[in-house]
Amino acid sequence: MYLKLNDKEIRHFKKRLMEERKKVTDELEWVEDNYIGSSQRDSSGEVSGQATHPADMGTDSIERDKAYLIGDTRGEALEDIDEALEKLGKDAFGMCESCGQAVAGERLEAAPYAKLCLKCKTEEERAGGASR
Ligand SMILES: [Zn+2]
Question: Rounded distance, CA 127 to CA 132, Å?
Fold first, then answer.
């Protein structure tokens, strides 16, 4: 059993995936520019190792942790999107990786790179699937 897409649907999902990809890469670039990149640039001597506003030092490290977290989840999303693009037009696209059922239409529309159907996703979250 697999999801049969016609050419129009394939084009549609490809467009959606490219949009999502752009969004995610933009966010990743933003995070790198504002947090991760600036800390790496310190060693070049161009940018001071000190935070721009010493008064913000406390929040700065929190912000940086948050930035790394965003970078992490966006990195995973990017992998999922690339995988979905790879699968698009083939049998595996839009199929739940857990139960093998087709991912519901609205869910696929909202997240074309979804790897699990809503049921399996909910179960995973309930089972404490935070590790993934
Ligand atoms: Zn499922």
Answer: 11
